[in-house]
Amino acid sequence: MKLVRNTVSAIAMIAAGAIASAVPASAAWDIAKAAAPYKGTQLNVIFLDRPGYRAIIKLLPEFEKQTGIKVNYEIVPYENTREKEVLNFNAKGDLSIALVDLVWIGEYAENGWIVPVDKFTADASITDPNLNLKGFFPLLLDAFGSWGGKTYGLPFDNYSGLLFYNKCMLKDAGFDKPPATWDELAKTYAPKLTNKDKKQYGYALQSLRGETQSADSFMRSLWPHGGSLLDKSFHSNLTSKESQAGLKFRQDLMQYMPPGVVSWDHAEAVNALAQNQVAMITEWSAFYSTLTDPKTSKLGDCLAVAPEPTGEAGRLPALGGFSLAVASQAPEKEQKAAWIFIQWATSEDIAKPYVEAGGVSGRMAVYDDPAIKATFKFVEPMVASWKKGVPEFRPRFPAWPAISEVVAEFGSKMMLGEVTTENGAKEIGTRMEAILQKEGYYDGKKALLQ
Amino acid sequence: MSNPARRTNPGYGRWTPFWFLAPAVVALFLIGIYPTLFALVTSLRQYNLTRSRDGFPFVGLANYQAVLSDPTFWDTLARTARFFLVVMPVEIALGLCVALLLHRPGLNFLRALARVTLVIPLATTYAVVGLLGRLVFNRDFGVANSFINLFGFPALDWLGNSAGAFAAICVMDVWQWTPFCALIFLSGLSMVPVEIEEAAKLETTSHWALLTHVQLPYLLPGFTAMLILRSADVLKLFDVVFTMTRGGPGAATELISIYIQRVGFRVFDLGTASAQALLLLVITILLARLYIRFFYREIE
């Protein structure tokens, strides 16, 4: 037995040696050596109070020890992050790294607040030869980090919309698998899973006014049904047959949702599933750890995860996430140190410990790891969701925050029945086109990028 | 007649009062006047922080024109007025009742205790009041539904429908600000000379007559101050509503300050937001002048 173990160890050592020698570039990269000129540099970045950030904070001491670069992070609620960053960039403040939500990438890039990565990749002394941009899911690199054909940020905190469900409740109702289509969810599953006397509901869609309404609720209702916010000429597409079908579908589905979902944010929807009040929710992959934690969830083994159902236009789940980009306001030395940090935080080497610590990496390779697949149930559906999707699930141009406000107001009013889907769509269309007109999209001043 | 201090103190010169006043004036200038002037200049420019690459050109009164022709501005202003007209009478009535109860002689310990506890809602941070509101009006676990269940009414989804959410923010405002009204009224009542009050009590047993003929003149200056402060406060009420409802559902609780915040810090159109804020300042000043004209009376 001992002989077998020794033989296996020897083979493993030889194999490791062979791999190391086969990748000479890897041996050449020494992060400590690359960071030596920047030792003592202080980097400032905004983080959120979410699992992906807690994960990197756990791993930070290792980076700081290796490089001597100090990363100062401030934890800020999501709602205030853009406000803080925009004010900081306008005031030429102290942020050296920008945390970029996918819907901010156009705004940040067009204002020149973030630096394209090719400025750094051209410098071999600070670029990991194994950076391997092709190792990111193309959808993520494209949606989270790129604008106008240039890459600015590397995907860091990555989400996909997933169907989280209580498989015990589904089983009790006679279902041994989750709904494959939205139609099936609404017509077959939700009626059977709803018992209003017991305050039990088939499905919940978080719809609080704000980005939750505009992104999680409104846009999620459009895409799978073939609808979209804008047509090819950047005019409203909300009165199209497909968009209206999606919005009406959401109205019909509300009869199987708990009353008051219009005031529900992510926390309420996740909690309703965790406390067995609803059978299914469509939420970001990042909430997996909340739903598996016995302190915050009663689900235990009843939790199951699947890709979002498909619609007439196919499976087009919600897409969200953040990239890290170097802030152009930072001094040159700080920019280089920031680039070293960003590469490290999003690298293939760190991907596994990052996922194990609760983060969701944007690297493809880590999800091939059988141990990761076995431990994290969300991996397979998430990878399936990232194989196809629409980067412009929410338009990423600078006008989105203003449009999001309009969508959130009238999207909520539609759900409350204060306006019809037709009239609400017209109101959104008129106001949205006025914003886009002001931005110069209709007089040829700006390229139609989203 | 010259001041004896000036004669005896050689350090007291012509500029001494100036130096004593200077720190307060400088502080007022820095935190009050300068930002207002800056807002005035900003309101005359195209000042969008997300389009800073376009510069901040002078646009004259275009921002004011845009605000005055913006239906959402008027809708939110009307909603804010409705909110004020709902909460203010309730706060005044309840505050007056509490003040009259605390003004009655006897039960000194309980009165002292009540005065202290009245300060608690006032001292609570606005955002915390909003978070408390979310809990109080939670459909499943909130005390609001437990309370109405006691009377046999079914649970309401307070924050999930327009009327319920508006009622919920009104209730939280009444909870927080009734003590303020009570304390202001109480201070007015404590200024009524005891001999006049006792003489009036010998003349009549009617509490209403005592209140309207003897106590009311002493309450009016405080009442006017209360109206001015609460009007300004309601026009800039943000934190409670934002943490409770974010202005939703729909636009049910979108007060004017929430709208200005959206324009200023979501759209970053600071030119328009400054114009809106300055128009609110004008409204506040006008209201204050009206209150003083119609309610304020010197005590003779």
Structure explained in plain terms:
The complex is a heterodimer of chains A (450) and B (300). Chain A is 47% helix and 13% strand. Chain A is α+β, with helices and mostly antiparallel strands and 450 residues long. Chain A has 2 domains: 198 residues, D-Maltodextrin-Binding Protein, domain 2, CATH 3.40.190.10; 204 residues, Periplasmic binding protein-like II (D-Maltodextrin-Binding Protein, domain 2, 3-Layer(aba) Sandwich), CATH 3.40.190.10. In chain A, the strands form 3 sheets. In chain A, strands 3, 6, 7, 8, 9 and 10 form a 6-stranded mixed beta sheet that branches. A two-stranded parallel sheet of chain A has the order 1-2. The longest helix of chain A is centred in the first third of the chain and has 21 residues. Chain A is globular, with a radius of gyration of 23 Å. Chain A starts with a helix and ends in an 11-residue tail after the last helix. Chain B is mainly alpha-helical and 300 residues long. Chain B has one domain: MetI-like fold (Orthogonal Bundle), CATH 1.10.3720. In chain B, α4 crosses α8, α4 packs antiparallel against α10 and α12 runs antiparallel to α13. The radius of gyration of chain B is 24 Å and the shape is globular. Classes of the chains: A alpha+beta (450), B mainly alpha (300).
